[in-house]
Automatic annotation (TrEMBL):
It comes from Ilex paraguariensis (yerba mate). It is a multi-pass membrane protein. It is found in: Membrane. InterPro entries: VCCN1/2, YneE/VCCN1/2-like. It holds the Pfam family Bestrophin_2. One of its GO terms (cellular component) is membrane. Keywords: Ion transport, Membrane, Transmembrane, Transmembrane helix, Transport. This is Uncharacterized protein. Its main location: membrane. GO terms for biological process: monoatomic ion transport.
Length: 412
């Protein structure tokens, strides 16, 4: 039988001081705040509530799994932005020295290709360790008998190994052909720039306005390779590169344009039209601009159309499946040696594939900054030599005229 509940009635015998103390205690525990403070406290309480634990765990797991790939990608992209240098005689001697193998091996940890292989090599080596541990546990009867040993015949691998080798070779060869095409395109751009500048330097001008136009025209010609380089390489500082090549007003127009190389070509074309030139000379100079348009077309085609993605995906999937099943194939003959064998195989084959991916985009691999600087220095030297050569030839002409006899025959 349940006991009757006795309702608690407020005591009428409390003194006024006890009653005020009780009210003070209630206010301290449950303070009455204004409306806006109530909203603020509600927001704080809501924000302090723990979020969905499953989403937090998913985010943490994802961040942990992507930590190493993100680290490797950041190093690779940072190394991609480093400036390449043109080889001189000393670098060629070092390049073919007998100690190059030791030097290359000791600098392996600084290679962006090797650092980019850290994620896949770790994954496939870990898979090999798991499979080897599982097979060892089954062989030692640590697991129930219905767990099978993961092993298979090596005949399928012997049949598919040549296919994988040919796939990697063709992939790398296709990437190198793109690299070679980009190098040839830039060779034409550089030679065309030098030839164009040489013909502009040879123009004789009389009026001061034409002299200023000629000077500006040479500036535009020098700026074109720089603008094309910044147009092709991601993260280039075109404002800093063109700051010392163009006037402030011209630079503002170029920077406001969506296609900077075409904008500089328009500057060149308009400058040629404003110069007082004969029609034959103007036609010759105008035809030189086609070399710039051709260079832009080839470079943009290379940068916008990679090797067919199905080919790249096929190579990647083939490599992944190959190394996921490699420990199962090698377990019968190698046992725990499958771990170093998988490590070596993944490091070697994925390295070849990574080189193909890197040189597929040729322009970051070329020394374009050095080529642009070489063009600038050669044109500046040509301008300086023009004045010296003209002074030297004028001096020879005067001396030749003074050596003639009065009857018009030169003296011996």
């Amino acid at each position: 039988m349940s006991k009757p509940t006795i309702p608690i009635q407020p005591s009428t015998s409390l003194s006024s001081s006890s009653h005020s103390a009780l009210q003070m205690l209630v206010k301290l525990r449950h303070p009455v705040l204004p409306a806006k403070h109530n909203k603020l406290s509600f927001k704080i309480l809501c924000s302090s509530q723990p979020s969905n634990p499953s989403s937090d765990q998913t985010f943490t797991l994802k961040s942990i799994l992507l930590a190493i790939p993100n680290w490797a990608d950041s190093i690779k992209e940072r190394r991609m932005q480093q400036k390449r240098s043109l080889y001189d005689h000393e670098q060629w001697l070092q390049h073919r020295s007998s100690s190059r193998h030791i030097r290359h091996f000791l600098s392996s940890l600084n290679s962006r290709v090797i650092l980019s292989l850290v994620p896949p090599v770790i994954v496939f080596t870990s898979v090999a360790v798991i499979i080897a541990s599982y097979n060892s546990a089954v062989s030692m009867h640590w697991l129930p008998e219905f767990f099978p040993v993961l092993r298979s015949s090596s005949l399928p691998y012997q049949l598919t190994a040549p296919a994988l080798a040919l796939l990697l070779v063709f992939r790398t060869e296709a990437s190198y052909s793109r690299f070679e095409e980009g190098r040839k395109a830039w060779t034409k751009v550089i030679s065309g720039t030098n030839d164009f500048a040489r013909q502009v330097i040879a123009i004789s001008v009389e009026s001061p306005s034409d002299a200023l136009l000629k000077k500006a025209l040479l500036q535009y010609i020098v700026a074109f390779p720089v603008a094309l380089k910044c147009h092709l390489i991601y993260g280039s500082d075109i404002a800093g590169d063109l700051k010392n090549l163009l006037e402030v007003d011209d630079l503002a127009v170029v920077l406001s344009s969506k296609h900077r190389p075409l904008c500089i070509i328009e500057f060149i074309s308009q400058s040629l039209q404003m110069l007082n030139l004969e029609s034959s000379k103007w036609n010759v100079l105008e035809s030189k601009i086609s070399c710039f348009h051709e260079g832009i077309g080839v470079c943009e085609q290379l940068i916008s159309t990679p090797i067919p993605l199905s080919y790249t995906r096929l190579t990647s999937r083939f490599l992944v499946l190959w190394h996921l099943t490699l420990p199962i194939i090698l377990w019968e003959d190698c046992k725990w040696i499958v771990v170093p064998a998988t490590f070596i195989s993944a490091a070697s084959l994925f390295c070849i594939e990574e080189v193909g991916v890197l040189i597929e985009e040729p322009f970051p691999m070329l020394a374009l900054d050095e080529l642009c600087k070489l063009v600038h220095n050669s044109i500046q030297e040509a301008i300086t030599n023009e004045k010296k050569i003209q002074a030297q030839l004028n001096a020879k002409r005067k001396s030749h005229c003074s050596e003639h006899s009065p009857n018009g025959r030169p003296t011996i």
